[in-house]
Amino acid sequence: MSKVEDALAAASETKALRIGKGLLKEVADLFLEQFPNQTAVIIADTTTYKIAGETVYKELQKAKIPQLSPYIYNHPDLYAEYTFVDELANFLKTNNAIPIAVGSGTINDLTKLASHLTGRQYMCVATAASMDGYTAFGASITANGAKQTFNCPAPQACLADIDIICNAPREMTASGYADLFAKITAGADWILADSLNIEPIDEKAWSIVQDGLHDALSDPEGVHNGDPVAITKLVEGLMLGGFAMQWSKSSRPASGAEHQFSHLWNMENHLHHGEHISHGFQVSIGTLAITAFYEEFLKTDVSNLDVKNALAAWPSPEKSDKEALAIFVGTDFPEIGLQETKAKYSNAEELGTQLQSLKENWPAIKAKLEKQIVPYQEAIRRLKLVGAPTEPEQISITRERLRETFIRAQFIRRRFTILDVALRTGYLNQWLDNLFGKDGIWEI
């Protein structure tokens, strides 16, 4: 059994996945297999309808599958925002059709949540290897100014035609590669949370994501050039990330501190030349930032950690709440810091146990992290080869803002990451000074 077949067998929601060349002609067969005697409706935007939607429509017609007129978003600045979910949900409430999402991240997330809100399953036809959300549990949608993950099932069936995906814009493929590369640092964060008895590693979810990860990332040049073998491995890796999230009902297997950078920038309505930046390109910078941060961590002799000093500097619950409320004053999301840091706050006794464990088990923890992390220079080389941004300025993030992000991002998610370790050990400023000070990677 292949890795993908094994993961599909473990998936709780997706019952069928087809990946291969020329598969668009199988779309009607897959729909009939999964949704017998049902009416279909294609959900697309103007671009994805031309690329694949028209063919899907014709294939369904040929198979005599009843279908409604396609629902095509024609907004020039379509993105995963709740207004567009409402728009689609209102349409779906007028019928019982099974949506077929034809597109990539935005179309899939909008359709996923709208389908859930109207009580039906859906099918997905992927048009680009741009992110890992196709087969993921949950949809990442901006609502009330904040990027949020809404619980909703993954598609019942998914089809990825490699011929179409190989011809997707290179920046979309680079974005997907960067999103997959982020599983390296996300894995390191989970190793930390597990080592400190904060969140144990789910061996099945870990295996689904991590076992074939290095192989899927091994040919960035081939991915950039649209090589079918390299693209197939990338697509499989992205789908596996989604299956792991289905299995665990959490994004923990595929998302760590690097994603918190991206989520924060989205929440702050950050734009590059007036346009939204792809998730993968934001995560590319986030992953490099966290990789460099891990290298600072690994250079630190944590065996010498002064636990008593760290505990003395740890804020009381009242002080922590006050700091968390203060950090996002004047934003669209003033309460999120309080909400999320409260959820992961440790009292002095719990913190003492965590820090003592980190100190005493440092050689073993360090060995696991060194095995997991791809060195910063190698990460830069691969992300450059694939065409992803490797300098914060390439997505209009100044070095000053990048430094500030290391501090602010810790407040927006309750997930335990390297950022929390830096704060709890008292090493945060030391590591940031090394990165942003004289001769640092991002010397300011």
Q: Could you describe the 3D structure shown?
A:
The chain has 444 residues and is α/β, with parallel strands linked by helices. It is built from 22 helices and 8 strands. It has helices at residues 3-10, 27-34, 46-62, 82-92, 105-117, 162-166, 170-195, 203-210, 213-216, 220-224, 228-248, 257-267, 279-299, 307-313, 317-327, 336-344, 348-360, 362-372, 376-386, 399-408, 418-425, 428-436, and strands spanning 16-20, 40-45, 71-73, 98-103, 123-126, 139-143, 146-150, 157-161. The strands form 2 sheets. A 6-stranded parallel β-sheet has the order 1-8-5-4-2-3, sandwiched between helices. Helix 4 crosses helix 5, helix 8 runs antiparallel to helix 11 and helix 13 packs antiparallel against helix 19 (376-386). It starts with a helix and ends in an 8-residue tail after the last helix.
Summed over residues and divided by their number, the pLDDT gives a mean of 95
Specify Rg, calculated over alpha carbons.
Answer: 22 Å
Strand neighbour order, sheet with most strands: 1-8-5-4-2-3
Report the uncertain regions.
none
Shape: globular
Please describe the biggest sheet, giving its number of strands, its sense, and whether it closes into a barrel. Answer: 6 strands, parallel
Q: How many individual β-strands?
A: 8
How does the helix and strand content classify structurally? alpha/beta
